[in-house]
Amino acid sequence: MKYNKVLENIKTYEAGKPIELVVREFGIAAEDVVKLASNENPIGTSPAVKQAIIDNAGKAHLYPDDSMFELKDALAKKYKVNENNIIIGAGSDQVLEFIARAVLDETSSVLMSAVTFAMYEIYAKQMGAKIYRTASYEHRYDEFIEAYRMHKPKIIYLCTPNNPTGDATSKEEVLKIIHAVDKDTLIVVDGAYMEYAAAKESKYAMEPNDILAYPNVIYLGTFSKAYGLGGMRVGYGIADAEMINQIYKMRPPFNISSLSLAAAIAACKDESFVVESIALHQEQIKRYETFAKDQGFEYIESYTNFITYVFSEQRDSTKIADALLKRGVIIRNLASYGMNAIRITIGTQRQNDIFFKHFLEVIA
Ligand SMILES: *Cc1c(COP(=O)(O)O)cnc(C)c1O
Q1: What does the pLDDT look like over 173-190, one tens digit per residue?
Q2: Ligand 1 pocket test: which of 93, 223, 232 has the largest number of ligand atoms within 8 Å of its C-beta?
Q3: Residue 342 Cα to ligand 1 middle (Å)
Q4: 3-state secondary structure of 310
Q5: What is the pTM of this model?
Q6: Pocket residues for ligand 1 (CB within 6 Å)?
Q7: What is the C-alpha to C-alpha distance for residues 6 and 191, in angstroms, rounded to an integer?
Q8: Which of 45, 72, 160, 233 could form a disulfide with 90 if both were Cys (CB 3.0 to 4.6 A apart)?
Q9: How many secondary structure helices (H) and strands (E) does the chain include?
Q10: 47-270: CATH number
Protein backbone atom coordinates (compact mmCIF):
# COMPACT_ATOMS: atom_id res chain seq x y z
CA MET A 1 0.00 0.00 0.00
CA LYS A 2 1.39 3.37 -0.99
CA TYR A 3 0.38 6.31 1.17
CA ASN A 4 0.45 9.96 0.31
CA LYS A 5 4.07 11.11 0.08
CA VAL A 6 3.53 13.94 2.55
CA LEU A 7 3.03 11.37 5.33
CA GLU A 8 6.69 10.32 5.15
CA ASN A 9 7.92 13.22 7.25
CA ILE A 10 4.97 13.68 9.58
CA LYS A 11 5.33 12.49 13.17
CA THR A 12 2.06 11.64 14.88
CA TYR A 13 1.15 14.24 17.50
CA GLU A 14 2.19 13.10 20.95
CA ALA A 15 -0.81 13.83 23.16
CA GLY A 16 -0.51 14.22 26.92
CA LYS A 17 -0.68 10.84 28.66
CA PRO A 18 -4.09 9.94 30.07
CA ILE A 19 -4.69 8.98 33.70
CA GLU A 20 -5.88 5.52 32.56
CA LEU A 21 -2.42 4.73 31.17
CA VAL A 22 -0.70 5.40 34.50
CA VAL A 23 -3.30 3.27 36.29
CA ARG A 24 -2.74 0.40 33.83
CA GLU A 25 1.05 0.55 33.58
CA PHE A 26 2.08 1.39 37.13
CA GLY A 27 -0.86 0.07 39.13
CA ILE A 28 -1.48 3.43 40.79
CA ALA A 29 -5.05 4.14 41.91
CA ALA A 30 -6.77 6.68 39.65
CA GLU A 31 -7.43 9.04 42.57
CA ASP A 32 -3.70 9.18 43.32
CA VAL A 33 -2.72 10.15 39.79
CA VAL A 34 -2.07 13.85 39.25
CA LYS A 35 -2.38 14.99 35.65
CA LEU A 36 -0.62 18.28 34.99
CA ALA A 37 0.28 17.63 31.39
CA SER A 38 -2.39 18.97 29.05
CA ASN A 39 -3.15 22.47 30.33
CA GLU A 40 -6.66 21.50 31.35
CA ASN A 41 -8.58 23.54 33.89
CA PRO A 42 -7.83 21.93 37.28
CA ILE A 43 -11.14 22.98 38.84
CA GLY A 44 -13.14 21.32 36.09
CA THR A 45 -16.06 22.96 34.36
CA SER A 46 -18.70 25.44 35.40
CA PRO A 47 -21.80 23.89 37.07
CA ALA A 48 -23.88 25.74 34.46
CA VAL A 49 -22.06 23.80 31.73
CA LYS A 50 -22.74 20.45 33.39
CA GLN A 51 -26.40 21.37 33.69
CA ALA A 52 -26.56 22.36 30.00
CA ILE A 53 -25.10 18.99 29.00
CA ILE A 54 -27.69 17.14 31.09
CA ASP A 55 -30.51 19.33 29.76
CA ASN A 56 -29.53 18.52 26.19
CA ALA A 57 -29.01 14.79 26.63
CA GLY A 58 -32.51 14.09 25.31
CA LYS A 59 -31.61 15.61 21.94
CA ALA A 60 -28.83 13.14 21.20
CA HIS A 61 -30.75 11.60 18.27
CA LEU A 62 -31.05 14.97 16.47
CA TYR A 63 -28.34 16.54 14.36
CA PRO A 64 -27.10 19.77 15.93
CA ASP A 65 -27.96 23.21 14.55
CA ASP A 66 -25.43 23.41 11.76
CA SER A 67 -25.56 27.22 11.66
CA MET A 68 -24.44 27.19 15.34
CA PHE A 69 -26.41 30.38 15.66
CA GLU A 70 -26.63 30.48 19.44
CA LEU A 71 -22.93 29.94 20.04
CA LYS A 72 -21.95 32.45 17.35
CA ASP A 73 -24.39 34.92 18.85
CA ALA A 74 -22.86 34.46 22.31
CA LEU A 75 -19.32 34.88 20.92
CA ALA A 76 -20.37 37.86 18.79
CA LYS A 77 -21.73 39.61 21.88
CA LYS A 78 -18.72 38.71 23.98
CA TYR A 79 -16.21 40.04 21.43
CA LYS A 80 -18.36 42.72 19.77
CA VAL A 81 -18.06 41.22 16.29
CA ASN A 82 -20.62 39.94 13.79
CA GLU A 83 -21.72 36.33 13.39
CA ASN A 84 -20.25 36.26 9.89
CA ASN A 85 -16.83 36.92 11.38
CA ILE A 86 -16.91 33.60 13.24
CA ILE A 87 -16.14 29.98 12.41
CA ILE A 88 -16.51 27.22 15.02
CA GLY A 89 -14.24 24.19 15.06
CA ALA A 90 -13.91 20.94 17.00
CA GLY A 91 -11.28 22.69 19.09
CA SER A 92 -9.36 25.60 17.59
CA ASP A 93 -7.24 22.75 16.28
CA GLN A 94 -9.85 22.07 13.65
CA VAL A 95 -9.85 25.73 12.61
CA LEU A 96 -6.06 25.45 12.19
CA GLU A 97 -6.68 22.50 9.91
CA PHE A 98 -9.27 24.42 7.84
CA ILE A 99 -6.83 27.31 7.44
CA ALA A 100 -3.97 25.07 6.29
CA ARG A 101 -6.24 23.31 3.78
CA ALA A 102 -7.65 26.60 2.52
CA VAL A 103 -4.32 28.20 1.61
CA LEU A 104 -1.46 25.68 1.41
CA ASP A 105 -0.19 23.31 -1.24
CA GLU A 106 3.13 21.59 -1.96
CA THR A 107 4.63 24.79 -3.36
CA SER A 108 3.99 26.83 -0.19
CA SER A 109 5.77 27.39 3.08
CA VAL A 110 4.79 28.48 6.58
CA LEU A 111 6.67 30.36 9.28
CA MET A 112 6.56 29.86 13.04
CA SER A 113 8.71 30.32 16.12
CA ALA A 114 11.51 27.87 16.99
CA VAL A 115 9.44 26.23 19.73
CA THR A 116 5.69 26.48 19.45
CA PHE A 117 2.43 24.52 19.19
CA ALA A 118 3.19 21.24 17.42
CA MET A 119 0.01 21.14 15.33
CA TYR A 120 0.98 24.11 13.13
CA GLU A 121 3.73 21.99 11.62
CA ILE A 122 1.60 18.87 11.30
CA TYR A 123 -1.30 20.55 9.46
CA ALA A 124 1.12 22.38 7.17
CA LYS A 125 3.00 19.19 6.36
CA GLN A 126 -0.26 17.40 5.60
CA MET A 127 -0.59 19.89 2.74
CA GLY A 128 2.99 19.27 1.62
CA ALA A 129 4.12 22.74 2.70
CA LYS A 130 7.64 23.55 3.84
CA ILE A 131 8.26 24.64 7.43
CA TYR A 132 10.45 27.58 8.42
CA ARG A 133 11.18 28.52 11.99
CA THR A 134 12.74 31.57 13.60
CA ALA A 135 15.87 31.15 15.72
CA SER A 136 14.27 31.80 19.12
CA TYR A 137 11.07 30.71 20.76
CA GLU A 138 10.02 34.28 21.54
CA HIS A 139 8.12 35.97 18.76
CA ARG A 140 10.70 38.58 17.83
CA TYR A 141 9.79 41.12 15.19
CA ASP A 142 13.23 41.14 13.55
CA GLU A 143 13.45 37.37 13.27
CA PHE A 144 9.94 37.02 11.88
CA ILE A 145 10.28 39.81 9.35
CA GLU A 146 13.69 38.67 8.14
CA ALA A 147 12.41 35.12 7.61
CA TYR A 148 9.20 36.44 6.06
CA ARG A 149 11.13 38.51 3.49
CA MET A 150 13.39 35.58 2.67
CA HIS A 151 10.77 32.83 2.32
CA LYS A 152 7.47 34.60 1.59
CA PRO A 153 5.46 32.05 3.62
CA LYS A 154 1.73 31.63 2.95
CA ILE A 155 1.01 31.44 6.68
CA ILE A 156 2.71 32.99 9.72
CA TYR A 157 1.76 31.52 13.09
CA LEU A 158 1.92 33.85 16.08
CA CYS A 159 1.16 31.96 19.27
CA THR A 160 0.61 34.41 22.10
CA PRO A 161 0.94 33.37 24.82
CA ASN A 162 3.13 30.65 23.39
CA ASN A 163 2.74 26.95 24.08
CA PRO A 164 4.88 25.14 25.34
CA THR A 165 7.11 27.96 26.63
CA GLY A 166 4.51 30.17 28.33
CA ASP A 167 5.92 33.55 27.29
CA ALA A 168 3.75 36.13 25.56
CA THR A 169 4.19 38.72 22.83
CA SER A 170 2.81 42.21 23.43
CA LYS A 171 -0.09 43.45 21.35
CA GLU A 172 2.16 46.22 20.06
CA GLU A 173 4.72 43.69 18.81
CA VAL A 174 2.05 41.50 17.17
CA LEU A 175 0.56 44.51 15.38
CA LYS A 176 4.03 45.56 14.23
CA ILE A 177 4.51 42.16 12.60
CA ILE A 178 1.05 42.33 11.02
CA HIS A 179 1.82 45.78 9.54
CA ALA A 180 5.10 44.60 8.02
CA VAL A 181 3.51 41.66 6.18
CA ASP A 182 1.60 42.00 2.93
CA LYS A 183 -1.96 40.78 2.40
CA ASP A 184 -0.97 37.59 0.56
CA THR A 185 0.30 36.04 3.78
CA LEU A 186 -2.28 34.77 6.22
CA ILE A 187 -1.41 35.50 9.85
CA VAL A 188 -2.79 33.31 12.61
CA VAL A 189 -2.90 34.90 16.06
CA ASP A 190 -3.45 31.92 18.34
CA GLY A 191 -4.81 33.15 21.66
CA ALA A 192 -5.51 29.76 23.28
CA TYR A 193 -4.23 31.12 26.63
CA MET A 194 -5.18 34.76 26.14
CA GLU A 195 -7.49 34.85 29.19
CA TYR A 196 -4.49 34.20 31.45
CA ALA A 197 -2.21 36.74 29.75
CA ALA A 198 -4.88 39.44 29.68
CA ALA A 199 -5.52 38.95 33.40
CA LYS A 200 -1.82 39.20 34.18
CA GLU A 201 -0.69 42.24 32.19
CA SER A 202 -2.75 44.45 29.92
CA LYS A 203 -0.04 45.05 27.31
CA TYR A 204 -0.36 41.37 26.31
CA ALA A 205 -4.16 41.44 26.06
CA MET A 206 -5.44 40.98 22.52
CA GLU A 207 -9.00 40.69 21.30
CA PRO A 208 -10.41 39.63 17.95
CA ASN A 209 -11.32 43.27 17.32
CA ASP A 210 -7.64 44.23 17.32
CA ILE A 211 -7.12 42.27 14.10
CA LEU A 212 -10.50 42.46 12.37
CA ALA A 213 -9.46 45.39 10.19
CA TYR A 214 -6.81 43.22 8.52
CA PRO A 215 -8.34 40.91 5.89
CA ASN A 216 -5.39 38.47 6.13
CA VAL A 217 -5.39 37.96 9.92
CA ILE A 218 -7.40 35.46 11.97
CA TYR A 219 -7.68 35.26 15.76
CA LEU A 220 -8.14 31.82 17.32
CA GLY A 221 -9.64 31.08 20.71
CA THR A 222 -10.65 27.91 22.52
CA PHE A 223 -12.96 26.68 25.25
CA SER A 224 -10.43 23.99 26.20
CA LYS A 225 -8.26 25.96 28.59
CA ALA A 226 -9.69 28.75 30.80
CA TYR A 227 -13.29 27.63 30.16
CA GLY A 228 -12.52 24.06 31.17
CA LEU A 229 -14.07 22.27 28.17
CA GLY A 230 -11.11 20.29 26.80
CA GLY A 231 -13.21 17.15 26.53
CA MET A 232 -15.99 18.86 24.58
CA ARG A 233 -13.76 20.04 21.70
CA VAL A 234 -14.91 23.56 20.86
CA GLY A 235 -12.81 26.41 19.52
CA TYR A 236 -13.29 29.33 17.16
CA GLY A 237 -11.69 31.56 14.59
CA ILE A 238 -12.62 35.23 14.20
CA ALA A 239 -11.65 37.16 11.07
CA ASP A 240 -12.80 39.33 8.23
CA ALA A 241 -16.05 37.93 6.77
CA GLU A 242 -14.47 37.09 3.42
CA MET A 243 -11.76 34.96 5.03
CA ILE A 244 -14.38 33.16 7.13
CA ASN A 245 -16.39 32.58 3.95
CA GLN A 246 -13.47 30.89 2.27
CA ILE A 247 -12.35 28.80 5.26
CA TYR A 248 -15.96 27.69 5.77
CA LYS A 249 -15.74 25.66 2.56
CA MET A 250 -13.38 23.26 4.34
CA ARG A 251 -15.77 22.61 7.21
CA PRO A 252 -17.62 19.28 7.37
CA PRO A 253 -21.31 19.56 8.31
CA PHE A 254 -22.21 19.19 12.01
CA ASN A 255 -18.56 19.40 13.06
CA ILE A 256 -19.57 20.21 16.67
CA SER A 257 -21.80 17.81 18.59
CA SER A 258 -25.03 19.15 20.11
CA LEU A 259 -23.75 18.52 23.64
CA SER A 260 -20.53 20.39 22.90
CA LEU A 261 -22.49 23.31 21.48
CA ALA A 262 -24.73 23.43 24.54
CA ALA A 263 -21.68 23.28 26.80
CA ALA A 264 -19.87 26.09 24.98
CA ILE A 265 -22.95 28.33 24.96
CA ALA A 266 -23.35 27.87 28.71
CA ALA A 267 -19.61 28.43 29.23
CA CYS A 268 -19.75 31.71 27.30
CA LYS A 269 -22.45 32.96 29.63
CA ASP A 270 -20.60 32.08 32.84
CA GLU A 271 -17.64 34.42 32.95
CA SER A 272 -17.52 34.08 36.73
CA PHE A 273 -16.13 30.57 36.32
CA VAL A 274 -13.23 31.92 34.26
CA VAL A 275 -12.60 34.64 36.84
CA GLU A 276 -12.54 32.03 39.61
CA SER A 277 -10.22 29.77 37.58
CA ILE A 278 -7.77 32.59 36.94
CA ALA A 279 -7.78 33.70 40.57
CA LEU A 280 -6.84 30.19 41.72
CA HIS A 281 -4.25 29.97 38.98
CA GLN A 282 -2.59 33.27 39.89
CA GLU A 283 -2.33 32.24 43.51
CA GLN A 284 -0.95 28.76 42.73
CA ILE A 285 1.56 29.72 40.02
CA LYS A 286 3.39 31.85 42.59
CA ARG A 287 4.22 28.65 44.44
CA TYR A 288 5.92 27.28 41.31
CA GLU A 289 7.95 30.46 40.89
CA THR A 290 9.01 30.47 44.53
CA PHE A 291 9.80 26.76 44.38
CA ALA A 292 12.01 27.25 41.32
CA LYS A 293 13.87 30.14 42.92
CA ASP A 294 14.39 28.21 46.17
CA GLN A 295 15.66 25.16 44.29
CA GLY A 296 17.78 27.14 41.85
CA PHE A 297 15.82 26.21 38.70
CA GLU A 298 15.34 28.42 35.75
CA TYR A 299 11.80 28.99 34.63
CA ILE A 300 10.20 31.00 31.85
CA GLU A 301 7.92 33.80 33.04
CA SER A 302 4.47 32.42 32.27
CA TYR A 303 1.40 34.13 30.82
CA THR A 304 -0.49 30.84 30.57
CA ASN A 305 -1.98 28.17 32.85
CA PHE A 306 1.31 26.25 32.88
CA ILE A 307 4.95 26.90 33.77
CA THR A 308 8.08 25.70 32.00
CA TYR A 309 11.08 24.68 34.09
CA VAL A 310 14.32 24.72 32.10
CA PHE A 311 17.12 22.47 33.34
CA SER A 312 20.87 22.88 33.17
CA GLU A 313 23.01 20.12 31.65
CA GLN A 314 23.35 18.18 34.91
CA ARG A 315 19.70 17.25 34.72
CA ASP A 316 17.75 15.38 32.04
CA SER A 317 14.11 16.30 31.47
CA THR A 318 13.32 12.83 30.07
CA LYS A 319 14.60 11.07 33.19
CA ILE A 320 12.73 13.49 35.42
CA ALA A 321 9.48 13.09 33.47
CA ASP A 322 9.76 9.29 33.50
CA ALA A 323 10.47 9.18 37.24
CA LEU A 324 7.49 11.43 37.93
CA LEU A 325 5.25 9.29 35.74
CA LYS A 326 6.11 6.16 37.72
CA ARG A 327 4.95 8.06 40.80
CA GLY A 328 1.66 8.96 39.16
CA VAL A 329 2.56 12.55 38.31
CA ILE A 330 2.00 13.32 34.62
CA ILE A 331 3.76 16.41 33.29
CA ARG A 332 5.01 17.29 29.81
CA ASN A 333 8.59 16.54 28.81
CA LEU A 334 9.80 19.07 26.24
CA ALA A 335 12.72 16.98 24.92
CA SER A 336 10.82 16.39 21.65
CA TYR A 337 10.70 20.20 21.22
CA GLY A 338 14.49 20.31 21.53
CA MET A 339 14.40 21.69 25.07
CA ASN A 340 15.81 20.18 28.25
CA ALA A 341 12.71 21.34 30.07
CA ILE A 342 9.37 20.24 31.47
CA ARG A 343 6.01 21.95 31.21
CA ILE A 344 3.73 21.69 34.23
CA THR A 345 0.07 22.70 34.16
CA ILE A 346 -0.73 24.63 37.33
CA GLY A 347 -3.11 22.43 39.32
CA THR A 348 -5.23 22.80 42.41
CA GLN A 349 -3.55 23.40 45.77
CA ARG A 350 -3.67 19.65 46.48
CA GLN A 351 -2.36 18.62 43.05
CA ASN A 352 0.50 21.10 43.34
CA ASP A 353 1.36 19.83 46.85
CA ILE A 354 1.66 16.31 45.41
CA PHE A 355 3.76 17.55 42.50
CA PHE A 356 6.24 19.38 44.75
CA LYS A 357 6.56 16.39 47.08
CA HIS A 358 7.40 13.95 44.28
CA PHE A 359 9.48 16.42 42.31
CA LEU A 360 11.69 17.12 45.32
CA GLU A 361 12.27 13.39 45.82
CA VAL A 362 12.97 12.82 42.12
CA ILE A 363 15.58 15.58 41.85
CA ALA A 364 17.26 14.67 45.16
C1 LIG B 1 -4.65 23.90 23.44
C2 LIG B 1 -4.21 24.73 22.29
C3 LIG B 1 -4.99 24.92 21.13
C4 LIG B 1 -6.29 24.33 20.82
O5 LIG B 1 -6.82 23.41 21.59
P6 LIG B 1 -8.24 22.83 21.20
O7 LIG B 1 -8.52 21.95 22.35
O8 LIG B 1 -8.09 22.12 19.90
O9 LIG B 1 -9.16 24.00 21.09
C10 LIG B 1 -4.53 25.76 20.14
N11 LIG B 1 -3.35 26.36 20.25
C12 LIG B 1 -2.59 26.21 21.32
C13 LIG B 1 -1.32 26.94 21.37
C14 LIG B 1 -2.97 25.38 22.36
O15 LIG B 1 -2.16 25.21 23.41
Answers
A1: 999 999 999 999 999 999
A2: 93
A3: 18
A4: strand
A5: 0.96
A6: 91-93, 117, 159, 163, 190, 192, 222, 224-225, 230, 235
A7: 28
A8: 233
A9: 13, 13
A10: 3.40.640.10
